[in-house]
């Protein structure tokens, strides 16, 4: 810790001893989560090794799960008595408030119906379009054009770096419910340190694409199976600057899309086969992680399949 302004110790060297973790101090999140973990273990919950923010308790064939992000948490499961007990124990340990059924969490809107659970960020999209002046723009059908050849060139026209980074940062958060823009966001996020007018044009196109369907989201339906399926693809040497390939994968559990990613590979692949195998490795790791996560929740997957499709990966995250 730094000495408070105006404090004088007579010119002697010294340090401050931290007696209490104040809100805002970098040590406070670790101290808070350590205390919360201790309270959950005291309640008999198991901390998942696949996701350390997930706590699970199995009792009489029923499951109760809690996941926390900073100080916001979601409690779910089929053991209603255990959920009531958990809320009571947490209220005794911390100052907390129950908001009832889940409808809104960290900008994500949750709608439950007989068809399933629908996740969207329509308000977030509309607010972003309004702030950027794109609310009345003409919508487009795709988030990015094919063969865009974006890169960093010596004669490029620079744009406001801070504005570009803020826009891309907000778009990255939208990828949580919009797998169809995952590839486009992956492309524009590579030029955060040196954005140009060409890069800003792509960001503007993504906003225009969101304008076409601001209420688009993901629907999770009830399924009779929990089969895990993974699909991967790769664009070999697609980056015009460093000739690295872009990998993409998306996975399904019970026929529902759960994870997706589009990311440029760390090294240059010397053949399309090498690039494909690297992409497959990322997809298989994701499938194995999902198997372990479901196992911690008490669901034992009887089978796991991974379908690999070869070819150019224009938009790995698009469904």
Please, could you describe this protein's structure?
The protein has 319 residues and is α+β, with helices and mostly antiparallel strands. The protein folds into 3 domains: 28-100, no CATH class; 120-212, no CATH class; 224-308. The chain has helices at 28-42, 80-93, 122-131, 161-174, 182-188, 197-212, 272-296, and strands at residues 46-47, 54-59, 62-69, 72-77, 104-105, 108-113, 116-120, 217-220, 228-235, 246-253, 256-264, 304-308. The strands form 3 sheets. It has a 4-stranded antiparallel beta sheet, covered by helices on one side. It has a 4-stranded antiparallel beta sheet with strand order 5-6-7-8. Strand 2 and strand 3 (62-69) form a beta hairpin. The radius of gyration is 23 Å and the shape is globular. Residues 306-319 have low confidence and may be disordered.
Structural class by helix and strand composition: alpha+beta
- Number of continuous helical runs: 7
- Average pLDDT, rounded to a whole number, is 86
What best-fitting shape do the alpha-carbon axes yield? globular
Strand % is: 15-25%
Rounded to the nearest angstrom, the radius of gyration is 23 Å
Q: Kindly report how far apart the N and C termini lie.
A: 49 Å
Task: Tell me the number of structural domains.
Answer: 3
How would you write the strand order of the largest sheet?
1-2-3-4
Order of helices and strands: HEEEEHEEEHHHHEEEEHE
Question: Which runs of at least 5 residues are low in confidence (pLDDT < 50)?
Answer: 306-319
Quaternary structure annotation: single chain
Tell me how many strands there are: 12
Percent helix range = 25-40%
Q: What does the main sheet amount to?
A: 4 strands, antiparallel
């Amino acid at each position: 810790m730094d000495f408070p302004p105006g404090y004088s110790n007579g010119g002697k060297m010294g340090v401050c001893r931290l007696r209490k973790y104040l809100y805002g101090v970098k040590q406070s999140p670790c101290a808070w989560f350590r205390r919360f973990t201790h309270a959950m273990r005291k309640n008999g919950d198991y901390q998942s090794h696949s996701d350390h923010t997930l706590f699970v308790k199995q009792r009489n064939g029923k499951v109760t799960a809690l996941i926390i992000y900073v100080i916001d948490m979601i409690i779910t499961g089929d053991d209603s008595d255990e959920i009531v007990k958990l809320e009571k124990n947490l209220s005794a340990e911390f100052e907390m408030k129950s908001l009832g059924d889940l409808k809104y969490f960290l900008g994500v809107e949750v709608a439950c119906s007989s068809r399933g659970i629908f996740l969207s960020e329509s308000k977030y999209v509309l607010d972003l379009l309004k702030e950027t002046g794109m609310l009345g723009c003409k919508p487009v059908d795709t988030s990015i054009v094919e063969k865009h050849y974006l890169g960093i060139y010596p004669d490029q026209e620079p744009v406001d770096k801070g504005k570009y980074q803020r826009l891309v940062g907000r778009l990255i958060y939208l990828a949580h419910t919009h797998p169809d823009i995952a590839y486009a966001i992956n492309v524009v996020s590579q030029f955060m340190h040196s954005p140009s007018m060409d890069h800003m044009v792509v960001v503007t196109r993504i906003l225009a694409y969101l304008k076409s369907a601001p209420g688009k989201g993901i629907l999770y339906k009830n399924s009779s199976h929990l089969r895990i399926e993974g699909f991967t693809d790769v664009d070999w040497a697609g980056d015009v600057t460093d000739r690295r390939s872009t990998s993409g994968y998306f996975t399904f559990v019970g026929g529902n899309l759960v994870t997706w990613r589009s990311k440029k590979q760390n090294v240059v692949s010397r053949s399309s086969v090498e690039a494909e195998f690297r992409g497959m490795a990322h997809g298989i790791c994701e499938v194995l992680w999902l198997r372990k996560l479901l196992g911690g929740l008490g669901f034992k997957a009887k089978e796991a399949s991974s379908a690999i499709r070869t070819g150019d990966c224009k938009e790995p995250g698009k469904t």
